[in-house]
């Protein structure tokens, strides 16, 4: 299987990096092919420009490459810290630019864009690993853990991926080695 | 009153721009001072680097300016399209970089960072205007409208702002002039 790991903490040596390294090592050991994208290290440009929005837009080479890779993936793993109930901007931009119409979803032929899109990613399973400095109970009560619905319903299920699992690690800032 | 309007659609002439223009005109007419930040036009850099995370970090001039302005604001208005249940990456990055510890919230002196932060924005009221191409019923049922909790609970209330109102305009893509 071809697995993409997308990673968005701002510094090497983070718990997120250790998680991604462990995931990649386990996948390789199980015989899978793994591609890791450390978005900060790659200096991924997260700004979706207006001329990239149309379905048939010409894409910059680095975006076209990300799109081809994710269209060919059997599995995908996202690893990121929870910042304001969302991924860091760099991963938000990966979502904005790579999960495009024609790559991740499409509208029916007869539909000018107002209907219900159909997910077309071939990915069979998606994993999300998050880190947080908010205790579990406060996350649920004060914030409602918006990342769960964002990943599960707004992104993974929307793109047609049947299996989803997410794990939040917290509280990281006061955790022991 | 000093009001900041933060705007994040990728192209001039959008419904978001028209909304921000109307908001700014009404506020000016009512005697307020208004500053509008069109983040795409300003080419705002949304990537929070690791060395900017500490509370006493040295900030680039443009980020320091945004921080001073938001610390001095009486009101704030966010205008953005709903992309994947979140703001576009450029506005996510404004949140990541400008709503900093010491500007938007703080921890108690005795607290190494694991406690409950206290919101310290002087802003008295926050408005959020969103555009979407998802019908209202489907937004609630399929996605749970994560932007409501993100803005209301994860950001506005977290930063100590007492009044919040949000309005979603949809479906925009098939709407008439």
Question: How is the secondary structure organized here?
Answer:
2 copies of one chain form a homodimer.
Chain A: E1 2-7, H1 15-29, E2 33-38, H2 39-42, H3 61-72, E3 75-81, H4 89-98, E4 105-106, E5 118-119, E6 125-131, H5 136-143, H6 146-157, E7 163-169
Parallel strand pairs in A: 1-2, 1-3, 3-6, 6-7
Antiparallel strand pairs in A: 4-5
Notes on the structure:
Chain A is an alpha/beta fold and about 180 residues long. The first copy, chain A, has one domain: Rossmann fold, CATH 3.40.50. In chain A, about 35% of the residues lie in helices and about 20% in strands. Chain A has 6 helices and 7 strands; from the N terminus they run E-H-E-H-H-E-H-E-E-E-H-H-E. In chain A, strand 1, helix 1 and strand 2 form a beta-alpha-beta unit. The two termini of chain A are about 35 Å apart. The model of chain A has no long low-confidence stretch (mean pLDDT about 95). The interface between A and B is large, with 40 and 40 residues.
